[in-house]
Amino acid sequence: MHMHVNRIARQLDALGPPVASACVILACSCRSATAAPNDPRLCIKLMRRGTEEHRLQRRRLVLDEDAYLILNGSTPCDSVYRGEHGAWPFAVFFGRGLLDEALRERLPDDDGPEAQGVCFLEHLRPHGDAVSQRLRALARHVESGEHDRLWCDEQVTELLAEALRLERELQQVSRRIASVKAATRRELLRRVMLASDFICSHHDHAITLDDIAGAAGLSPFHLLRMFRQVHGVTPHAYLLAKRLLVAERLLQRTQMDLTEIAARSGFGTRWSLFRHLRRRRGAGGDALRQRCDPAPCRISA
Q: What pLDDT shows up at residue 18?
């Protein structure tokens, strides 16, 4: 389904109050424009092309093609789609009835999402995990024009189950943080995720450790220690990996020259881009573009 972004607003408005078991799949293409306020349902979304810049509780969160995002739907959120050749968002909105049913199938856990009213951490999640794979498969199926309702229902149900499982695992990551109280560990995990989101959303700018720490509400010393415990790498290494991921995507999908790619990815200069590509991939930008199949790059350890 292809539509201009102002039709998205009308479609979501037409949904009315959330039906207990209803799930809605939104797949469209649009020009750069402001989207409607978020639907008050749990949502998992990705961008097939372009970006969606969110304003979520006074923070800037940019979803691009390298990650997916889970929103609880309980916090007001406005967003803007951008893309040189249009933006291609894909989202699944879950009815509360399906969420309640999924929770009844799981055993309660003090550190899991069940214990906290299933409040997902609203942060950027790099592609590659089980949720990402299922979400992308669903997007490809819908984009192909097929309308196998049973298959889609099964995939949506499994998608939610995988999201709950991975959220449980993410909450358990907080155990790496040296703190006595579980609630303190979860709060520190949330703040570290704010830091990694800030890096991914501002990778094309010159950012400092103070900038990242400020976004997380932590001191630079505390952030550096917590960031290593959660992600296994320093903020600087995380930033470089994100910039490389963006640079390689632009090399593969566009005809931009290396100077523009360096600016878009955050490396600043053509020479800096070449140096980092050479160090990580053993080849510069032109060679990688000819090869057209650079090895996958992740932004975590």
A: 42
